[in-house]
């Protein structure tokens, strides 16, 4: 069915007209994105995150994202103690508090609560309320503990994408069909019999996103997504990432082109910025020095990474800071890194910060004007 990018007057078309999309990755979960105990304001509460969204909108950001997670009591431990808002519900509420920015909620489409009819109706309603500013980051879930919370065993990786494809096929038909719709999936345990959804999305359908690096996930993105959320194949260190990203982004776009579609890439940098490079690196080092070992014991990595070898300590430091990639420096250096990411085939950045409120303010005041000067923002 038609993408919202095919409508010249849609909010998505407005965003895609920017040379570089600019987004904010909200900290709706305790600890934000950084496993560090260094004092900061970052908070998972609705009021804190709503204020971030409104400030990002003031600065002209295009998108905000929020993650979705289902964790047992205690979360991952340490600062990641499991306190978190629901992505779908919190961003739905923010449609009433914003006017221009696109809100992208992460949804595990295979988990128990969702039936395609619910999903199609709820998302079409939010598209109507927001006047086309609603998006979905479609995820299939990968942690066994999350699957088990809903009463079943973790589904094999590639099959998850096959099930998600059936789900989205049905949802898109519900968004598009002018009459009642019946559908019997081959793999899934739900069905539709004379189903109908109103209102219809204003611009074809909501924005669709997925985050992946796997073959099956990239194939899914090429068939369904407007934007694919990528990670660096070479880890979080910026120079290593910049070496790998041109080939990676080219591959993602080529897979979509082979299916007759255009897709944009988005990456999540953790931005650590101060007036001087020395101040920024000191801030980075303080975050790492306060790394919270208690936040690591439920990850797949070694729980004692802080006391391990060089590679383990590097991994632990990266988790203390957070983000898919890390960029550290003065405003001029941060702007230059973002220019280089764009040159590497990245179409947008979805920013994270350690101390969100002051760091977002500093970015908006000091870095954003430099991106405009560089021609990346209108």
From TrEMBL:
Gene3D superfamilies: Luciferase-like domain. It comes from the Bacteria. Residues 22-347 form the Luciferase-like domain. InterPro entries: Luciferase-like_dom (IPR011251), Luciferase-like_sf (IPR036661), SsuD_RutA_monooxygenase (IPR050172). SUPFAM superfamilies: Bacterial luciferase-like (SSF51679). One of its GO terms (molecular function) is oxidoreductase activity, acting on paired donors, with incorporation or reduction of molecular oxygen. Pfam families: Bac_luciferase (PF00296). Keywords: Flavoprotein, FMN, Monooxygenase, Oxidoreductase. PANTHER family: ALKANESULFONATE MONOOXYGENASE, ALKANESULFONATE MONOOXYGENASE-RELATED. This is FMNH2-dependent dimethyl sulfone monooxygenase. It comes from Paraburkholderia phenazinium.
């Amino acid at each position: 069915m038609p993408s919202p990018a095919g409508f010249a007057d849609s909010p998505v078309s407005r965003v895609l007209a920017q040379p570089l999309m600019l987004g904010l990755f909200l900290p709706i979960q305790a600890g934000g994105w950084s496993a560090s105990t260094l004092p900061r304001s970052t908070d998972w509460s609705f009021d804190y995150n709503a204020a971030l969204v409104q400030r990002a909108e003031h600065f002209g950001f295009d998108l905000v994202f929020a993650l979705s997670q289902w964790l047992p009591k205690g979360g991952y431990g340490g600062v990641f103690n499991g306190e978190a808002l629901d992505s779908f519900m919190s961003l739905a509420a923010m449609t009433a508090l914003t006017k221009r920015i696109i809100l992208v909620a992460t949804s595990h489409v295979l988990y128990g609560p969702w039936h395609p009819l619910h999903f199609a109706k709820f998302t079409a309603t939010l598209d109507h309320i927001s006047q086309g500013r609603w998006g979905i980051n479609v995820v299939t879930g990968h942690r066994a503990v999350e699957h088990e919370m809903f009463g079943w065993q973790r589904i094999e990786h590639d099959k998850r994408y096959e099930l998600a494809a059936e789900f989205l096929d049905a949802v898109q038909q519900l968004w598009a069909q002018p009459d009642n719709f019946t559908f019997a999936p081959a793999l899934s345990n739900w069905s539709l019999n004379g189903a109908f959804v109103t209102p219809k999305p204003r611009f074809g359908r909501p924005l669709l996103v997925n985050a992946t690096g796997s073959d099956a996930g990239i194939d899914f993105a090429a068939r369904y997504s407007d934007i694919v959320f990528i990670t660096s194949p070479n880890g979080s260190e910026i120079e290593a990432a910049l070496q790998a990203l041109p080939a990676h982004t080219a591959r993602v776009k080529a897979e979509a082109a082979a299916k007759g579609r255009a897709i944009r890439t988005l990456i999540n940098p953790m931005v650590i910025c101060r007036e001087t490079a020395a101040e920024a690196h000191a801030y980075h080092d303080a975050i790492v020095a306060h790394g919270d070992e208690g936040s690591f014991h439920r990850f797949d990595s070694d729980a004692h990474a802080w006391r391990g070898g060089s590679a383990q300590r590097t991994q632990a430091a990266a988790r203390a800071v957070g983000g898919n990639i890390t960029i550290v420096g003065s405003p001029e250096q941060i702007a230059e890194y973002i220019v280089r990411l764009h040159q590497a085939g990245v179409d947008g950045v979805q920013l994270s910060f350690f101390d969100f409120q002051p760091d977002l303010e500093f970015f908006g005041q000091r870095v954003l004007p430099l991106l405009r000067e560089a021609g990346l923002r209108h």
